[in-house]
Every structure is written in C-alpha cells, then in structure tokens.
C-alpha cells in the first residue's frame, strides 16, 4: 500500500528550459573520444569505494594525524578523544584497504601511512571546503 507521507529525499527540481538542449544532437566524434579516455568501470568503482572510506570524519582525522607522525593506538585515541576499541575498529578498516600499516615494538603497535596520496586527497578536500 503506498504511503501518503512525503519522501525523505526531495525530488530534484525540474530542468528549466535554459538548462537543457533545445534540440537533440549528439557529437559522435566527441562522444567516442571521451569514451576512449574514460577509465575502466571497475577502476571507477574502486576509486569511489576509496572516497567513501576517506569520507568518514574519524578515518580522515586518523589519516591526517598519521601524516604528521607514526602513532600507537593509545596516542590516536587520546588525540581524537575516542575509545581504544573505536580507534582500533577504524584502523582495521584502513588497514584492510591498504591505507595504513603497522609495526609492533614490544607490547605497542605503531601505525603509519601506507599511501600518503590518500592524505593529499584529504588536504585537497580541506582546501576546497575552506
């Protein structure tokens, strides 16, 4: 049975007459040129999955902190004001995607960046947002 409640996501506004072409015409040469330059759909899927991972504020803060220094879980938890288990969970996700690596020193586990390019993406986003 359909609900009479409004949708939680508003519908996009209808295009204005000035927002769309007045005639349908496809520049086949341009379309083929762009199609040949487009990345593989699997690569786009992997890139967007990475951006979703980086899109979490906690994970972004962890990566930004690790771009400054190698830190143990205790250091990160203190720095971010989070529990050890919450930080460990985020580090497991980052490690599973190859963004951080760890090393053990005695009873301590230190984390560092595996790919500084991820932080470059975050810093570029900070510049755009600021």
Write the layout of secondary structure elements.
Blueprint: H1 28-37, H2 41-54, H3 57-66, E1 71-72, H4 73-80, H5 84-96, E2 100-105, E3 108-113, H6 116-129
Antiparallel strand pairs: 1-3, 2-3
Helix pairs in contact: 4-5
Task: Describe the protein in words.
This protein is mainly α and 130 residues long. It has a domain at 40-129: Arc Repressor Mutant, subunit A. The protein has 6 helices and 3 strands, in the order αααβααββα. It has a 3-stranded antiparallel β-sheet. A hairpin with a 2-residue loop joins strand 2 (100-105) and strand 3. The radius of gyration is 22 Å and the shape is elongated. 11% of the residues are buried. The mean pLDDT is 89.
User: What is the CATH superfamily classification of the domain at 40-129?
Assistant: Winged helix-like DNA-binding domain superfamily/Winged helix DNA-binding domain
Poorly predicted spans = none
Percent helix range? 40-55%
Count of distinct strands: 3
Report how far the terminal alpha carbons are from each other: 46 Å
- The third-level CATH topology of the domain at 40-129 is Arc Repressor Mutant, subunit A
Strand content: 5-15%
Order of helices and strands: HHHEHHEEH
Largest sheet geometry: 3 strands, antiparallel
- The general outline is elongated
CATH class of the domain at 40-129: Mainly Alpha
User: If you average the pLDDT, what whole number results?
Assistant: 89
In which order are the strands of the major sheet placed? 1-3-2
In the CATH hierarchy, the architecture of the domain at 40-129 is: Orthogonal Bundle
Tell me the Rg in angstroms.
22 Å
**DSSP helical segment count:** 6
